[in-house]
Batch of 2 targets.
Target 1
Amino acid sequence: MKTLITDSPLEAAAILNEGKTVAFPTETVYGLGAAIDSPEALAEVFRAKGRPGDNPLIVHIGTPEELPRVASKLSPEAELLVTRFFPGPLTLVLPKSSEVPYAVTAGLDTVGVRCPAHPAAHEFLKCCHSPVAAPSANRSGRPSATSWEAVHNDLDGKIAAILRGNTSRIGLESTIVDCTGPRPLMLRAGAVTLEELQAIVPSITPAGETQKNEAPKSPGLKYPHYAPRARVVTHERGESPAAIPSASAWIGLGTPPVGIALAKLCTTHEEYARELFSFFRHCDQEAIQTIYCELPPEKGLGRAIRDRLNRAAGNH
Ligand code: TXA
Ligand code: MG
């Protein structure tokens, strides 16, 4: 299949409306979209990514007003979160409406819903006739794509089109909050921080901190994630890895260890989040064998960066 690259949200939406797959920019990472009423395009998304069929897709809407199309009910907590954080980098897990097929939710009666704040994503979604199911636009297991070039590298020839946009402003995937249980659970950390969520809904807890069999975890989180080809090794700030092999890289906020061939020093957590996945991909292009990553403190945006680093390193 020839992959068309376009700068026009209208053209991209027209291709999606024909039942084809289209990658598009959002403020978190690029998504690979299919209309939720197109079984062929949905199957194509799983095929192009090499994604396991039991991993549900997030449904994207252009405006919060479209929520009733995809979710059958909003809890009072969900209402508060929508008012404060939609549009933005937050995904809410809600009871699904009948319009959302089980092919999207991997058989679950719940659906993840997100309304991106990115202007081109908004334009694109507004022109799509149906809500758009979209996982991150990378081959399964690889670092998410934060630029159209990264999408192109992973998926050229496997998808119908790429809506070309800017480099993703945030660089890490959305925060996911499950609002279907007795109390809201943060399933995945992201740019909307736990502290910001709790300022609106104090009862929100991270899923990991609940009893083992109490919480339905995000199905996708059991798979390996965000992994470059190089080995990822994490360290706390101030700890220095002992012997640095040649062809090693480092990313962090402190001081690079001595003997590192390629270092990315970030000055803020925002920069660390924005640069992480593109640095992983750059390291692969440079044939780096080991990437040392400094873990930021587990608060604010640091929580999301730590989570991605630990998953990339296979620490949990
Ligand atoms: O920022 C983002 O969220 C990006 C952009 C494109 O919106 N999307 C994204 O999608 O990261 P993906 O497929 O890479 O990750 C979605 C995660 C998976 O771990 C999946 O298991 C979980 O969301 N998920 C989706 N629907 C769910 C549901 N109904 N219940 C629990 N987890 C769900
Ligand atoms: Mg993903």
Note: The first helix runs from residue 9 to 17.
Target 2
Amino acid sequence: MNFEYAAAPESRSVVKIDPVYGHFINGKWVNGSAHFNSINPATEEVLSSISLGTAADVDAAVKAARNAFDKSWSKLSGGERGKYLFRIARIMQERAREFAVLETLDNGKPIRESRDVDVPLSAAHFFYHAGWADKLEYAGVETTTAPHGVVGQIIPWNFPLLMLAWKVAPALATGNTVVLKPAETTSLTALLFAQVCQQAGLPDGVVNIVTGDGSTGSAIVNHPGIDKIAFTGSTDVGKLIARAVAPTNKSLTLELGGKGANIVFGDAAIDETVEGIVNGIFFNQGHVCCAGSRLILQESIADEVLEKLKRRMDKIRVGDPLDKNTDLGAINSAEQLAKIRELTAAGEAEGAGRWSANCELPENGFWFAPTIFTGVTQAHRIAREEIFGPVLSVLTFRTPAEAIEKANNTPFGLSAGIWSEKGSNILWATQQLRAGVIWANTFNKFDPASPFGGYKESGWGREGGRHGLSAYLKGSAK
Ligand code: NDP
């Protein structure tokens, strides 16, 4: 049975969006020479006009970051740096509702997720790294405890504030200064974060935010004044960056794509597993690099799981992201929607069976119904390529060895899930899987203390935990 809920929209009166935003360079707002619009993907309403960063803007930001590194930030003790990080974390908590509503408006994700996941986890990353700032010599890192200097950071649109926190918190805790570029479609929470830096009294130039597109990102990557690049995004752009950085002395960490396998053994608790599958692929509209986008089911329980999964998917509430009842929000952009449509059309053309939840999609904005493909083989594009949307590919297996072979048969290696009541199954499978993060009887759980990163084309290096600290200290591998 489906309960009827009255709409429970979160008020947007808590946020103030300026009609035009400049870059945040050396603690000041600097208007760009050209602009582009940031829209609400749920309605296509123009939210604001954002500055398009040029090479000259990036250069000014790098100079400000270098000056701040030399004159103030590198002179502070770890304890003093930690105080700023604690202050930022507390202000983020105080302004949590503002951040959550703004993130939902700009990104399209449900308020339930921005409020309960993105914003609290972002603050948690600052709290966690604030604690390390004065204890680096006890962190057991396999590097020196000296910062790189100026770090260039480029982040994607799927978790705009959280990816900023993953990047900025460890960089500042270890004594680096930062030039960060948010994704073109989701700059607003990074610009609100700049206001938080001002409110926290962070010395000018320690954090610089230059908004823009891929050309702005490229100007950061290629700037000779930058000592380290940290990137999260697609594998294709990650490869371009690796090539650009290879002949230089810059250090590099890359968090790239994934095609996570979610393996369900015949003895798994089916109802809990179905919830885990839904969370694994439909959380954040499937715009998650570690999404459980390949469901690998033991044949003995495949029919039962699929029947229950479809029933559950029919109850997913798709619609207004600001409504507190909404489970699945808008696709982030028209381009991403086109990509999802192209790949799902390829799935049908290649012979997989398509099933979509029976839900009404709003007329304006960018939407895609939760969808699964059955009868998927290893050769299908939907089994190999990252769809980055609410689309699940289902494969089956007979023996555990077959499950592992299918799970590992991918150029990626970011995440995996195992569902089984037997600890021995879980321990055995964990040792065979080539994935940086493996969840057992759960999925998509994150903690600042836990390192995150991938094997193979999913990237280089780790973010979070002590391993993530190392990446921001001299002596880290390229
Ligand atoms: P991109 O990799 O293009 O974007 C990530 C960031 O890099 C953005 O800030 C982007 O700017 C910037 N960028 C783009 N081109 C360059 C460049 N040449 N040099 C430096 N920086 C650059 O991802 P997309 O947003 O285009 O998404 C495409 C696909 O990537 C998705 O469909 C998905 O499959 C995958 N993806 C994976 C993510 C992950 O976390 N693993 C995250 C996001 C996407 P701008 O936004 O202005 O283009």
Note: The first strand starts at residue 20 and ends at 21.
